[in-house]
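Dear colleague,

Following up on Tuesday's group meeting, I ran the structure prediction for the two-component complex that the binding team flagged. I've pasted the input sequences exactly as they went in, so you can double-check that nothing got truncated or mislabelled along the way. The C-alpha cells for the whole assembly follow below. Feel free to forward this to whoever is handling the docking comparison.

Inputs:
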Amino acid sequence: MNTIHMVTSLTTQDRWGVLVAAYLFLGGLGAALIAVSLLSDRYFHADRRLTLWGTLSGEALLGFGSALLLVDLLHPIRVWEILLPWNVLFEPTSWIAWGTQFIVWAMVFGLLYIWPLLLEEPWFRKLPVIGSWLEMWFELPLIRFVGRMVTRFRTPIAWVAILCGAGTAVYTGLLLRSFPAAALWANSLVPPLFTVSAFSTALAYLLLVLYGVLHLHGTLARWYERLDLMLIGVEIVLISTILFYILPGSASGKASLGLLWHSWGWIVGFLGVGLILPFLLEIKGVFSGWKRSAPMLVTACMVLMGGFLLRHYFLASGVYVFPWGNAQHAGVLGAGILNVLTAN
Amino acid sequence: MSKFAMVINLGVCVGCNACMAACSMENQTPVWDPQKFRTYVYDDEIQLGDKFIRQFFPKLCNHCDNPPCVSVCPTGATWKESNGIVRVNPETCMGCQACAMACPYDARYGADSEDIRHGEAYYGKDFLKRAVPSIDKCDFCYDRLQENLQPACVETCVGHARIFGDLDNPNDLVTKIVAAGAAHTLLPELGTRPNVYYVHKLPEGLL
C-alpha cells in the first residue's frame, strides 16, 4: 500500500491585475464598437457622425487598452513579434497570437473604412492647430486615391473589420478559457459571456453618443435599445448558469463563488447596478419609452461600468487548487482540504 | 530517444531545502524574492484523526505531455523538446505571463527588470546567465543534462528523495517505479499528463 497525504490550498492569481482587466474591457468594447458602427453604416444607413464617433472611439479604446497590456509585460519590446501576421501560423494554439491579429486588422480596416468619411468631414479641418495641416494633408493625391479605392471596395473592407472586431470580442473570453486550472475561467460559457458583454457595452456607448452628443433619437437608437436589452438578457442567463450550475461543481468553482458572494463590488456593482438595474431600466425604455434622455444616459453608463466590473471580478476571483499547503502567494485563501491518494 | 521524468519520494524528503539552494545557485533564480523559485519545498502539517503528520512537499515544473503553458504562448518562447522537457527562451519571451496563468502547478514566475539588476549585483555581472526579463521555470537543468550530469536538485538531495530518469529506458529506476503503478501525478483530472511523479514509499524489490 502506498498512500500519499496531501493538503490542498486555495489561491487566487496575483499576476494579472487591473491593467489586464481594463485591457479585456477596452479591447472588447473597442472592437465591438468598430463592428457595430460599420454594420450600422453599411446596412442601416447610420448617420455619418455616428459611424465616425463609433469607429474612432473603437480605434482609440482598442489602442489604449493594448497600451495598458504593453505596460504590464515583463519585456514589452518583444511584442513586435506577435504583430507579424504570420505569427499565428507558428503559434496557432495561442489565443493571444490570434487576438493580436484580430485587434490589428480590426483597427486597420476600421480606419480604412471611415477614410472617405474622414476626408469629407469638415469637423477635422476646423480643429485648432492641426486643422490647416490636416486640410492640406487630406488633399494629397495618395490620400485621395486611398479614399477612392476604399469607396470602391467598401463592403469587403467593412466585413474584414467587422469579423476581426467580433473575433477580438470572442478572443477576450477565449483567453481566459485557455487557463485550465480555475473553474471560473475554464468553462465554455466564458467566451460567449465576454462576447455578449462586449457588444452590449458597445451598444451602450453608441446610445451615449446618440443621446448625449448627437441628440439623435431616431429608429437606430430604438433598435440599439432593443438589441442591448436582448444582450443583457442573454448575459443574465449566462452569468446565472455559471454561478448556479457550473461553479458549484468543483473546489475551485466553489472557492470562486465564495469570493464573488463576499464582494460588494460584484454583488452591488456588477450584478445590481451593472446588470439587473440596466435590464429593468431598458425594459421600461423599450416598452414605454422615456420622456427625457437622462435615464437612457444613466443606463448606458451603468452597462459600461458593469462591463469593466465583470472582467475585473472574473480575473480576480479565479481560484487555483494547489495540491500542497502553505502556498507562497499573496492570494492564499486557505488550506486544509485533505486528499489521500492511494495505490496498491 | 529519451523521455525525461522525475520521481519524488515524499517518504524520505527531510525538508532540508538543499534542492532549492542548489537550483537557485545553478540557475541564478531571484532568491531575494520568496515567491520566485524554480523548485520549492512546502512544509505541510496534515491532521489525520488525532494524529498530525508533517510532510515536506517539493514542487517544480511537471514537464507535462499536454502542457497548457506551451499552447497559450503567443511567441513560441516556451516549447516542449522531443525529450519531454518544457523550456523557455528568455530572448523571445515578452513576459505576458499567460503561461504562468495557464500552469496549474504554479511552476512559473516572472523575472522582471528589477530581478535582472539585482542579479547583476548578487551573481556578478560577468557570470550572469539571465540578461533580459522573462518568465522562468525548471528545465531539469538542461545545460547539466548536456554534460551527462543530473539536475542540480537531484544531485544535491541528501535523502535521495528526487530520482531522475528516462522513461524510454525500461531498465531505469524511474521507469520501473512508474510502471509499478506506485507513483501519482498531480491534478491528473486536468489532463496535463505530468512527467513528475510522487510516491510515499518506493515499491519493494526495486532498490
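The mean pLDDT of chain B is 93.

Cheers,
M.
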